[in-house]
Amino acid sequence: MKSWSKSQSVFAALIAGTGLFAGIAGAQTGHRVSPASPPPLLDAREWLDRIAKSARELPYTGVFIQQTADGVSTSRITHLVDRQGVELEKLEMLDGPQTEIIRRNEEMFCYHPDAKIVRVDRRISGRFFPSLISGNPKLIADNYRVSLGNVERVAGFDCQWVILEPRDAMRYMQKLCAELGTGLLLRARLYSDRNQMLEQFMFTQLDLSRSVAKQSLKSRFEQLPGWQTNDSAKSANAAADTGWKVANLPAGFKKVAEMIRTMAGRSAPVSQLVFSDGLSHVSVFVEPMRGDLQTSGARMTDDSPIAFAMRPVADHQVTVMGEVPVAAVQAIADSVMQKRR
Fold first, then answer.
1. What is the pTM of this model?
2. Residue 107 has pLDDT above 50, yes or no
3. How high does pLDDT run on average in the chain?
4. What distance in Å separates the CA atoms of residue 237 and residue 273, rounded to the nearest whole number?
5. DSSP 56
6. Which residues of 196-217 are buried (b: 16+ CB within 10 A; e: fewer)?
7. How many Å apart are CA 20 and CA 73, to the nearest integer?
8. In this structure, what are the phi and psi dihedrals at residue 245, rounded to the nearest 5 degrees?
9. How much is the pLDDT for 52?
10. Exposure string for 263-280, b = 16+ CB within 10 A, e = fewer
11. What is the DSSP letter of 332?
12. Angstrom distance (rounded) from CA 60 to CA 90
């Protein structure tokens, strides 16, 4: 199955968001800021709205872990919205190869010190903790049964569990725990249809004291000599008409991006379409057929919640990837077709 591993290595970085980092940090209490008065009583959908807004609007800094079948990894995040309304974020991987990601709105600068390369790209898909909700909470509730769970403690803060149970077999159950005072997401869990936890994010340290300085969001490598910038991914045109479509999307999924991009190891440009239901993302890649590609099939990856499906269409190879069940990527792959000109 060499063809499967080749496709995974090429496309996984585009889907897996911040990636997987090795190691674990013990839970520690961060700076707790209690609200002046208890938060108002909210229903489950209102909690989704708070979770979405707080991750985008609040200043915060902390350390969180990501846990999958592959292990546990640790990273530090710093977030701020400046006076001009620009959302700024710095992500530092605390174990494994030294890496920093600086984000300005949706533009990302990925610093790789070992190679002295900074790669410029746009944030399109994948799960980016704590900003996991990208869609309208009212529309999300059309495809998930949303309810409130218990209140528990995470990293020294009280948080409210919000449970999202899928209404069909096209998405996974998710559980989100939001800080009572601000609504910031402190813990998130993704479950399979067999109720097995596939992925977990959790803050182990968190500072909500609003003391984040803009200077702290700059890369430590930004002014060092000898670095090369690779902005080939930035040239991808989000408004490009790829000439491809998905005829029958699962309920709730909508196209959020379409582009033609160059990719390492590919001699020809690759078309990419991204779909989301507001929580989960699925990418469709279409490229000219090559002799070393697996032509069809669907499966889960061994070390992450990402499912793959592959299918030949005319003289092209279609690869579908996303944090959804195999049934979903297979259904989407079966519906990919060329647009009529």
1. 0.85
2. yes
3. 85
4. 11
5. H
6. eebbbbbbbbbbbeeebeeeeb
7. 6
8. -150, 165
9. 94
10. beeeeebbbbbbbbbbbb
11. H
12. 11
